[in-house]
Design goal:
N-(1-d-carboxylethyl)-l-norvaline Dehydrogenase, domain 2, 4-stranded mixed sheet, alpha/beta, Rossmann fold
């Protein structure tokens, strides 16, 4: 039986631990600081359908508290900007492989980050990387608490071997996650699905910015996506047609109007609200990087990355910087 070692106790990781607990699936939620201490002492306050309940999840406050063994599967549930440090911390930890000493890098690792970089980071050390994309309404604002905004299935996962192909662990992982309340689609080309998710995620940062002009917000969103499509084409990165290629029924996945979750407050907004570093450099910054590598202008993504980066450096809360700043920066002549 697989034991899931969930690295990162934020919204996605803590919610996964709660769902695995409800399904009776072995796991350890590894976090840090006051958040994991509160969960360990009082249980996770898990809010679904607007109703809070206490879930006693298995926890560790330090990797040294986890004795890894053969059959474990690591789940990288940190934000993408924290992936390198987490992978470096875990890769060479000792593992008991049925009496043979081994390293964690021999175990399979599942990535759940936005952007394209997490799989590349993991593959530098882990031979078996399962790339994943996740669609979910998971919110972490208060210490010791996560809130789900989902009405039925708690989330939608698309998982495959990274950068492509399959893995012997995939069928078992899919079965466990379905038992835990997720819709799971398996693919042999997960990078295409990650590219499709990034087309959505490049707009996340707009939620952080003040501005009442819906037309301006919409126009910026369209330009962000158009630039992303252009750089993907130049880089030879194919994009999954998620509507045409989706084989799993998504009818049970939706937003619960009674959940207490406010729409438009996705992962980037939550980082700014909590005063922690955001993933913008790996979303809009990924598009900017690919544009520079392949000679494709990306003025809107670069402008949004800069505005968010400046706000991030000063720990400014959502609503401090504006849409107008991005529009004006994007209109400036490119520096040569």
């Amino acid at each position: 039986m697989t034991r899931y070692i969930i690295i990162g106790a934020g919204a996605v990781g803590a919610m996964l631990a709660a769902q695995l607990t409800g399904a009776g699936i072995d796991h350890v939620l590894v976090g840090r600081g006051e958040h994991i201490r509160r969960i360990r002492e009082a249980g996770l306050r898990y809010v679904r359908h607007g109703e809070p309940r206490t879930v006693r999840v298995s926890t560790a406050a330090d990797p040294d508290e986890v004795d890894l063994r053969g059959g474990d599967l690591l789940v990288l549930a940190t934000k993408v900007q924290d992936a390198e440090a987490a992978v470096r911390t875990w890769a060479w930890r000792p593992v008991d492989l049925d009496g043979r000493p081994g390293a964690a890098a021999e175990l399979p690792l599942l990535t759940l980050q936005n952007g394209l970089d997490a799989d590349r980071i993991a593959l530098r050390r882990f031979a078996r990387v399962l790339g994943g994309t996740i669609l979910t309404s998971a919110h972490y604002h208060n210490v010791g608490e996560v809130r789900s905004g989902a009405s039925g299935a708690v989330g939608v996962l698309t998982v495959g071997g990274a950068p492509r192909g399959t893995d012997p662990a995939l069928e078992g992982v899919a079965a466990d996650l379905r038992r835990a309340g997720y819709i799971v689609q398996l693919t042999d080309d997960v990078t295409r699905w990650k590219a499709a998710k990034l087309l959505h995620s490049v707009r996340n940062g707009l939620e952080v910015l003040a501005g009442d002009d819906d037309d301006e917000r919409s126009a910026l969103g369209h330009r962000l996506v158009a630039e992303a499509r252009a750089v993907f084409e130049a880089a030879g990165l194919a994009i999954a047609d998620t509507a045409a290629e989706r084989t799993e029924d998504l009818s049970t996945f939706g937003i619960d109007p009674n959940s207490g979750v406010v729409p438009g407050r996705q992962s980037t907004w939550q980082s700014f609200a909590r005063g922690v570093p955001s993933e913008a450099d790996f979303l809009n910054g990924e598009i900017v990087l690919l544009g520079r590598l392949h000679g494709v202008p990306t003025p809107v993504n670069a402008a949004l990355q800069r505005v968010l980066g400046e706000a991030d450096a000063r720990r400014l809360p959502p609503g401090t910087r504006t849409l107008r700043e991005v529009t004006e920066l994007a209109a400036l002549p490119a520096r040569t």
